Amino acid sequence: MQIALPINALSMSKKILVWFRNDLRLHDNEVLVEAIAKADEILPVYFFDPRYFEATSYHTIKTGAVRAQFIRESVEALRQALQSFGGNLLVLHGKPEDLLPGLVTAHNISEVYHHREVASEETAVSTHVEDLLWKQKVNLKHIIGHTLYNKEDLPFPIKDIPDVFAQFKKKTERDAIVKPCFLTPNQINFVALADWGTLPELSALLANGEASNPVINSIFKGGEQQALQTLDELLHFPESNSLKKVDIVAKLSPWLALGCLSPREVYWKMKHAETSSGSKPFFKHVLQGLLWRDYYRFMFKKHGNTFFKAKGFTQTVTQAVADEKSLQAWKTATTGQPLVNLLMKQLNETGFITNAARLLVATYFVYELKLEWVLGAAYLEERLIDYAPASNWGNWANVAGVGNDIKLTNGYGFDKQLKIFDPKGMYTPTINA
Ligand SMILES: Cc1cc2nc3c(=O)[nH]c(=O)nc-3n(C[C@H](O)[C@H](O)[C@H](O)COP(=O)(O)OP(=O)(O)OC[C@H]3O[C@@H](n4cnc5c(N)ncnc54)[C@H](O)[C@@H]3O)c2cc1C
Questions:
Q1: What CATH number did the domain enclosing 72 receive?
Q2: Three-class SS state of 317
Q3: pLDDT reported for residue 18
Q4: Is there a domain that residue 326 lies in?
Q5: What are the pLDDT digits (tens) for 258-300?
Q6: Using one digit for the tens of pLDDT, what is the confidence trace for 368-402?
Q7: Considering only CA atoms, which residue is closest to atom 36 of ligand 1?
Q8: Which residues, including other chains, have CB under 8 Å from residue 259's CB and lie 6 or more apart?
Q9: Is residue 101 part of a domain?
Q10: What CA–CA distance (Å, rounded) separates 339 from 364?
Q11: Number of domains into which the chain is organized
Q12: Rounded distance between C-alpha atoms, residue 37 and residue 39, angstroms
């Protein structure tokens, strides 16, 4: 028997706008799953926000060519994935707060869903959007979904999370659980649109200096499929007990940073691989990395902007040298230290260097060149393909001796890092190299 629908039934359908940011995936995506469950139709949207490509007060650019290209590829991949469900991704070039209210009105949207970020610039955008939507009587729903452990599953409230990483790790691993992944949707109903927008060209995104010379030599390709394939290859990487700790490089961070890969997906796939074919020495290392990632995100939630200040968690600022020549030499890989030069060249060309390499170039910057650490952090923000505010500024603050982990922050030095990184004076490539 067919039920006759009232004439306006279609226009009454509930429409939810899914605002994609650093969650460019279909797997383990709570925002998407929730929106699909609650709405008759969804409108997925991505904004290329011009603010993320502007110059900074540190004479750097917020996003350099390598990461801009990676973001573009990842958005394109998400669009293709949504097209395979018979829909699309609306791609717009502009600020969310300028464009979202109009979209809500034009498409009769009842709610907007998005993932909550932790750094102040991102949360400020959310607050601004929330205020504007509120005036339209539309709710902006925040979901927290970037971490391995959910905030509510931790054994302490955010304000009481230990500042010492070792304590955070011990208690979290002992008392918290990692939730299962959300299932990848098998059906999506989309709002009908005539024009889904075009991806801006790289030259339209980049600030002047970068746009005129966007040399891109990255070894990473953006997108969820590429991320899942890299994870799969990693899980099947031959076991080797001879691998030294500093040589273990999974190279998952660019996809994790942009949300093409969920940390829970990494965790559960590793747990399944352990059950089926036994643990591999580097599984533990990668899972510890994910804990570091959670730690810095939770620390940002706890302490906010302190991580962006030169004095960090200390009472006084150590007087740094304002030596433009040394700063440029470090950036352009022309210092007096050959290994630092090699690594900075690699960073400039590919957007990626290992953790040990980051520690080496950062300790050289802070303790040998005696430059102000925030300038180094801002440069890595521009260059890193895996840039994530909490991971970058949190690690830099600790390396510079102004971090919040008192057990860690005073223990860095260039000679020490050099010995760890390269005990035999050789530069050794690794897994996935
Ligand atoms: C000065 C400095 C700046 C950094 N800036 C960033 C950044 O902007 N973005 C970023 O993702 N990581 C940053 N890191 C952390 C770390 O160097 C990279 O995450 C790591 O090198 C990525 O390689 P991988 O995927 O092979 O890591 P693995 O060692 O295999 O670890 C698995 C994952 O855990 C996370 N992780 C590992 N170590 C850390 C750590 N110390 N802090 C936070 N997360 C970690 C990453 O997501 C990584 O992909 C920085 C470290 C330093 C010392």
A1: 3.40.50.620
A2: coil
A3: 98
A4: yes
A5: 999 999 999 999 999 999 988 887 889 999 999 999 999 999 9
A6: 999 999 999 999 999 999 999 999 999 999 999 99
A7: 289
A8: 21, 22, 23, 24, 25, 115, 146
A9: yes
A10: 10
A11: 2
A12: 6
Which residue range forms the structural domain that includes residue 130?
Answer: 13-145
Q: What local confidence, expressed as pLDDT, does residue 207 receive? A: 74
Residue of the CA atom closest to atom 17 of ligand 1: 355
The pLDDT value recorded for residue 53 is 94
Determine contact, residues 265/271, Cβ cutoff 8 Å: no
Residue 394 is part of a domain; what is its CATH number? 1.10.579.10
Atom of ligand 1 nearest to the CA of 376: 1
Q: Which two tokens stand for residue 137?
A: 């009587």
**pLDDT value of position 213:** 72
pTM: 0.94
Q: Flag whether pLDDT at 6 surpasses 70.
A: no
Select from 91, 110, 145 the last residue of a domain. 145
| Residues near ligand 1 (Cβ within 6 A) | 249-253, 256-257, 285-286, 289-290, 292-293, 296, 354-355, 358-359, 362, 380, 384, 386-388, 391-392, 395-396, 399
Cα-based angle 192, 197, 199 (whole degrees, multiple of 5): 140
Last residue of a domain, one of 125, 145, 165: 145
Helix (H) or strand (E) holding 124: helix 120-135
The minimum-distance atom of ligand 1 relative to the CA of 361 is 1
